[in-house]
Amino acid sequence: MAKGLATVYDNLSTLLAAGVPLIRSLRTVSAGLKGRLRQVFAKATSTVEKGMPLSEAMSLHPKVFARLDIMIIHAAEESGNLAEALDMLGHWYEFSRRIRNLTLASLALPILMAHLAAVIYPVPALVWSDWDFAAYRRTALLIVLVLCYIPAALIICIIRFTPQTGAMRRIVDRISLRMPLFLGRALRKLALSRYCWIFHMTSQAGMPITECSEMAANGAGNMVVADLFMACTASVKAGNSFSDGLSPKLPPEFVEPWRIGEETGRLDEISKRLAQKNGEDAEFWFKQFAVWFPRAYYGVIAAVMIVMVFKGYANLYGGLLNP
To answer: Is the pTM of this model over 0.85?
Structure first.
């Protein structure tokens, strides 16, 4: 769905920037879609034709369009920046898709290796002991469950069922930022990039800076990172600058450009640059994770296989020496 939305938003932005009316742009884009996305956009186009704003038409399909998308489109419609807002949303969805595909690619080979290990590891017991095939099958199934499916199910449950706010969410987010093999660093940079992108998009759409900050914090995807900006809204409401509320835990290479952007009136531009920079850093660290996670996993598998070989030799020669 992310790939489809990235393409749709990008195409709509191009057509609108070229001067094509909104309804005609929606019809053109809808004609090139397939499946559920085509049906949804056909309905949205029909709704817009009846006089409803695009953001309201999108809100009728909450399972397809995120709340943030709808709010940004709504603000862009009021400020007249619809084409630019759609372009930014398209770039954001394309970036999110790359990160997800990169992460999934890093897991493919380890999952395959886990299945191979589950098949091979119980073989010595089957050959050199009184095991039957049923015992071998149970052991292989247990190994693949422990190495693959139980951890995957646990991660999915944490993602789906952990509340979006509250103490439990904060604990999970704090743990995620401490994940080894560069994953924690990648997640931190990704959250900073999300904050800056949302701030930039909402600011470009004409929202007040306090609302931009609140929406960006809610959309950062990590409460611990969002807490680093918690005091900014209060700082603005108290009559101080936004940057006065930035946490000292943020790196200087983030704080100083933000402060300069605020002082020079170029905060929109600076927030976009920071979003791109942290996004590039996040992608780099996800690539490092994609390189090192399989190696670490292979190391564990290799160690288990070595133990298995020595155990097999011990059983074999022990049996020969003690007939």
So the answer is: no
